[in-house]
Amino acid sequence: MKKLLDILTNEVAHAFADAGYDEKYAKVTVSNRPDLCQFQCNGAMAAVKEYKKAPLLIAEDVVKKLEGSACFKKAVAVKPGFINLDLDDTALKGFMEEMSKADRYGVGEPEKKETIIVDYGGPNVAKPLHIGHLRAAIIGESVKRIGKYAGHEVLGDIHLGDWGLQMGLIIAYMKEKGMDLPTLSELEKIYPEASARSKEDEDFKKKAMDITYGLQQGDEEYTRIWKHIMKISVEDLKKNYEKLSVFFEIWKGESDAQPFIGPMVEKMKADGFAKISQGALVVDVSEESDTKEIPPCMILKSDNASLYTTTDLATLVQRVKDHDPDRIIYVVDKRQDLHFVQVFRCAKKTGIVKDDTKLFFLGFGTMNGADGKPFKTREGGVMRLETLLSDVYEKCLERMKENGAEMSDEERSDTAKKIALAAIKYGDLSNQASKDYIFDIDKFTSFEGNTGPYILYTIVRIKSILRKYEESGGVLSDKSFAPPSSDAERQLQLSLAGYNAMMQGAFEETAPHRVCAYIYEVANAFNHFYHETKILSEADEKKKDSYIALLLLTKGILEDCIDVLGFEAPEKM
Ligand code: ARG
Question: Which domains occur in the chain, in start order?
């Protein structure tokens, strides 16, 4: 389905052409003076140079050609040369009808369907999930769902950190204490202790490094322990991610890339890209246009050990072989920016990925506490994800009590979980990913303002009206739209009309915050309409039908949007 702005631009382009001007000046945008008009075209001003004519005269010529247009009920030329436009109400109604019937409300299929991998997660096995992993999970899951909704084949890859020194540390510690295969709760205690030990005890650290090396060479005993640790950790991770409604299609990790390293390195050498520098094997990735120095990409250290970059490059080899992706999106802490610049350049330069494969780094900022410093527990420690979730859950239960909706204990608990997830995810996603933000429980859980619970509340309100309508004998199917009969209704329809353009934009820009900004606008427009309109007591049946159609469309769009953001609405709250 076409985007509304494209339809309008097309209409204005005909008018430009009819009046003897180039169509390229006809771009229509949403008005930045909504008090004056809904849409505008500033092309007459841009055309001055070419036609050497006052912009107002050009605008007037174009407006004359728009007389009688079925698209616009108003088209006026104003000083110095703007064209102010209002959409015709019947055309708007037609657009609503088309959207209601269209696939995904008009988002439809992309011009070129891509295979996309989203690498978001990267938890390190054997360490408990903490809030540092929260942003990757929340943003990545949403980026993935937006891509799927935009019609692409999208796979989420957790890319476990399962191959580093932490494994050696854990095994060294277990050996020292004479432990055999640990349970999950033992494992959680081992890592912090082992890590602390390695900082004070050089011998212990050396041992851990030897074990890491042994494991990477395939030592049988270490491999047996490693497999066990992987099994219990992955089970636990799955449970935890599920609580966040985060699901990965691919459960691979750094260890899976290891077999690809050898051949990759050989090829880089043979092709002349990798060179020895100060004992290490490196690929130069600097470019002439660089304004700051980009150091060479390290492939092997002087002791032949591989690095984080090596693993990421080998993972690319594997992904190309397994999925031949058109685009790979990495959702990782923005402090890893340089690492990804090096990896991407190296992968392109050495031909691991094709020139036109899009490699995109979505670096996110830090989640801070009220004091503006990275989020901590009250005691100053690293906050576990479970603790954060249960704190927010308790707060939501409180809010629900204030609100007073009646429900069973089970429904109450289920509802509070849904609200808590919405509060956390919307609180995060409504900020541009690259920015730091302050995690403010009170603000995020409020049922009013730019929050997840406010969006849910709006959906719940619509559901409740529709329920009442059905209870009084109304039927939801076969409702048809009428042209808007009030400003509030028109405003809501106009907001909904921007849906497909917004969603495609959110995909192209890898920007979940655009979805948040959009649903906040729609929720506000809906609530305004709700307060201005007697919906169920409307006597004119045609009008009432149209209201119901509008409610259904608003609900459908809001529900699809929160689904791509990764949460859902309860029945009551
Ligand atoms: N495990 C890494 C860390 O904790 C994050 C991995 C991000 N993904 C990647 N392909 N490097 O920093």
Answer: 4-87 (3.30.1360.70), 116-156+251-367 (3.40.50.620), 165-243 (no CATH), 377-573 (1.10.730.10)
